[in-house]
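User: Please predict the structure of the protein below. I'd like the answer in structure-token form so I can feed it into my own downstream comparison script.

Assistant: Understood. Taking the following sequence of 206 residues as input:
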Amino acid sequence: MSTTRRFARAAAATVAAVTAATVLAACGGGDDSAAQPGANASFNLVDVGFAQQMIPHHSQAVKMAALAATRAKDPKVKKLAAQIAAAQGPEIETMQGFLESWGEPLAPDMADMDHSSMSAEEMAAMTSGSMPGMASDDDLARLSAAKGAAFDRLFLTLMLEHHRAALEMAQKEQTGGRSEPATALAEEIVTTQTAEITRMSKLQKA
């Protein structure tokens, strides 16, 4: 059985427990604590944040990897990019399934947040979904315009930074998450992307 199917099956097994926890929370009254996972819920806010942040992070990696098919020169870079897309595409679907089963949105709801103390730059970062390791619009434009060896160099530079940030996000989920399927996915991300970082570092030196 593939890793993705194992995660998806494990995620599906949590739906009943999550539903029951939600019903119990709703019956407990109208206080603010009902808006957060209860102490006995099968997930917590760390799990939710992990999925909500990793989905756009993975989506950008898949977008970057897709460019390599026609723009990369080194066959090893093309192969690596294809493997990144093949791994992270299904992981996105798995994390979307987590959020759906938990009754959580795909992105955090900022409508009720206090933005009065935020700078314009901070507001722009939040609304654009930017986070550590994410390539900027300028980076993506340069990558889309590059070809051959220049593409390979820029792709490896951007993807290495992207992967290192993903490792930090996944490691936080491993230590703070409650959902077993989510922490298992985080472990798989750490294993896979650590190996890919090693490969990319070697390609940079070749």
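That's the full token string. The first helix runs from residue 3 to 13.
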